[in-house]
Each structure stands twice: as C-alpha cells, then as structure tokens.
Amino acid sequence: MEDLIKNNYILKIPSTSEIGENSFNAIRFLCCLIVIFGHCFDMSHTFFAYRSFIDMHISVCVFFILSGFWITKSFLSTENIKAYAIKRIKRLLPMYYLTVFFFSIICCFYSDLGIKGYFSSSHFWKYLFWNSIYLNFMCPSLPGVFSGVAINGALWTIKLEIGFYIILPILIYFLRQFDSRKKQNIFLIVIYALSIIWNEIFTLLAVVIHIPSQLSYQLPGFMSYFVMGMIFLFNWESLIAKKNYFIFPAIIIFSLHYFTKTEILMPCALTIIVMWVGTSLTIFKKIGIPVDYSYGMYLFHFPLINIYTHYGLFKATFIWGGGRSNFNFIYYGFCCRKIYPIKN
Questions:
Q1: What are the two backbone dihedrals, phi and then psi, of residue 273, each rounded to the nearest 5 degrees?
Q2: Euclidean distance between CA atoms 127 and 115, whole angstroms
Q3: Measured in whole angstroms, how far is the alpha carbon of residue 107 from the centre of its chain?
Q4: Which residues are registered as beta bridge partners of 145?
Q5: Which residues, other chains included, contact 56 with Cβ-Cβ below 8 Å and sequence gap of 6+?
Q6: N or C, which end of the chain has less CB nearby within 10 Å?
Q7: What is the pLDDT of residue 5?
C-alpha cells in the first residue's frame, strides 16, 4: 500500500487551478487554421509568395504535444480504464465517422460514374471499410470523384491520435514501476530519443534507398512530441516556474531546425514555446471555450477544399476566405453542441 501511495504521489499532476488560465485551446485553433490555409493553397494550386511560412508539419506536432499533456491529465484524472476509453471514444469517433460517411454520400454528386454506378462500385465500399478502421491511406479516394485525389487527406493523423490513446495506459503502467520522478523522466527521455532515431533513420533511408518518406512520420516518429507533453505535465511546477529562462534558447533551437533539417531538439524546443505561449498570452483564453471548434474544422476542411476547387471558387477571394470558414463554423457549431460536448 505504501508503494502504491508513493507511486500515486510521484505521478501527481497539476490540478486545473494549478495550471491556471491558459490559451491552449487558442493555440490548437490557430494551428488548425494554419493547416487549413496551407491545404487551401496547395490543393487549389493558388500562388502565395509566403507559402513557405505556413508550416503545417509544425501545427500537427503542436497537436500531439497538447495531446500528450491533456490526454495524460485526463487519463490520470479518470477512475478506471473503461471510463477513460469511453471518454476518448466520445471525444474522437462520432465526429470522425460523421465526416467519413457524410462526404462519402455527398461525393456521389461529383462522381463521373453517376449516382447508381458510384454506390454500386466496389471502390466505394472499399473506401468506407478502410476509412472506418482509420487506415485511410489504403483507399483515400472515391470512385470517379475529383480525378482520384484523396477525399480527406487530413485523416492520417487520426490513427496516430488513436495510437496515442492506446499506448498511454501502457506508458503509465511502466512509469508506475519507477520509485522516483527522476527515473520516470529518464524513461520518457529514452522514448523521446528512440522516436528521434526512428525519424532520422527513415528520413535518411527515404533519400538513400527511396522508401516512402511517410514512414518517418508514423506513430514512433511522433512519440517525441507526445512524451514532451507528458514530461511537462509531470514536471509542471518546476518547469513552468523557469519558462522565461527557457523561452529564448527554445526559440533559437526552433529556428535552427529550418536550417539543420533535423528534429533532434525540435520537439523539446517546440513544447517549451507552446507552454510559454499557452500560459503567458492568456488574453486569448476564451477562444475555444466552451466549445473547441478546431477538431471539427480539421476533419471537415479537406473535402470542402476539394469541392471548392472543383467549382473554381478559389479564384474568388471572398468565397475562398469567407464561405469555407463560415460553413465550417456553422457545421461544427451545431454538431459540437449536440454530439461532442466533452472537454479534454
């Protein structure tokens, strides 16, 4: 019993009041907008002189940092694994399946096969099957729709998010086996290092022997970001007290990432920046409260951009900038409040 109490103390996490007012939802919202605008330019082939400053990869990494922080907090604040699983399922899956099935039906009007040929095509059912089990890359397109492009290329991150949900209880189990915070931190740092090694090796192999570059960005390659969120959560009091000392070195390391093209220290630097912004710029604290729109926007934007590109609407700036965003907000504002009221 003493060991159990001791381990529970070691895994103590900050309460909501200890974290205090923050703008983490605003950060998530901003990163979602960055991804959306990046896809708008790329998918519509719209020229933008400063496109290189829209870094969608960094935005996705921020999502995983915040997941490591908030999902770990949620898990340790939940009474058992069953309750945790139910909470995660309600959080993630209703909107995901609504998006997959909604657009699979809508796209029948854009198929070269006609409505009857579309629904009778084995490709249509193949799409539903693979996307229903989150293996979107197995069948990203729908029959005769948009010349075979991916209908929702943003869904690849969902299988990673689910992977993090599954692996988190295992990580917590191992963390509870250590009798000190120091040993727990070392364990998480080892996972961080292995993740970086995975990323660097497969990035190199993609160049040398031309294996798919996407292999470097599967779940092991993003674990460094997830565990950095965990490290910050478990060491909240000590790290957040020194955030002003860390921020400038973090910005320098983050900036050097664009020159070195490696991610050795980037997850650490990016996490420090995210935590500093989230706890310092609390003026944005009300964005995403009481409902965080970013998840619905993220799920919905890719097929919408395909549809707008099909109609050539990106040539009209007003429709491009206003119509898409308004549609996203109307859709998610309704669905969020009806289906998806759960917090982190």
A1: -65, -45
A2: 16
A3: 25
A4: 111
A5: 34, 35, 38, 39
A6: N
A7: 38
- List residues bridging with 111 in a β-sheet: 145
pLDDT greater than 50 at residue 330 = no
CB 310, CB 110: distance < 8 Å = yes
Residue 268 to residue 250: CA distance in whole angstroms: 8
pLDDT value of residue 1: 37
Instruction: Scan for tokens 């870094």, then name that residue.
Output: 55
The answer to pTM > 0.85 is yes
Task: Report how far residue 73's alpha carbon sits from residue 55's, in angstroms, rounded to the nearest whole number.
Answer: 28
Max Cα-Cα span within the chain: 68
Tens-digit pLDDT profile for residues 128-167: 999 999 989 889 999 999 999 999 999 999 999 999 999 9
End-to-end CA distance of the chain: 30
d(CA 110, CA 139): 18
Q: Which residues contact 237 (CB under 8 A, 6 or more apart)?
A: 14, 18
